[in-house]
# Entry
Amino acid sequence: QVQLVESGGGLVQPGGSLRLSCAASGNFLSIYAMAWYRQSPGKQRELVASITGGGRTNYADSVKGRFTISADNTKNTVFLQMNNLKPEDTAVYYCNADLRIQLIVRNQYWGQGTQVTVSS
# Structure
């Protein structure tokens, strides 16, 4: 059983900052990669940022230079620091974990989602 617990969403004014956290717990061998996705009403879920177990990062063009993804491997936790937030960043943010559950077996897991609202 694997669980992803997210925290850090909320309401912020344009130009403000928020930091999201996602902690993975349960039965798995290691983390292959973790990522943040977001989904706003009427739109498809989209990748925001990802980080591999080795620390390689990837960002959506819309957040480059404003968002930073990082990880604390000792705590199986991934963070998303969001700066200079814009109204178009408003969405439910979901944590995704790609985990090795056996030597050659990987599964993907999703968090419950956390609401981020950017509004004045």
User: Anything to note?
Assistant: DSSP finds no helices and eleven strands in the chain. The first strand starts at residue 2 and ends at 7. The mean pLDDT is 96. The two ends are 41 Å apart (CA to CA).
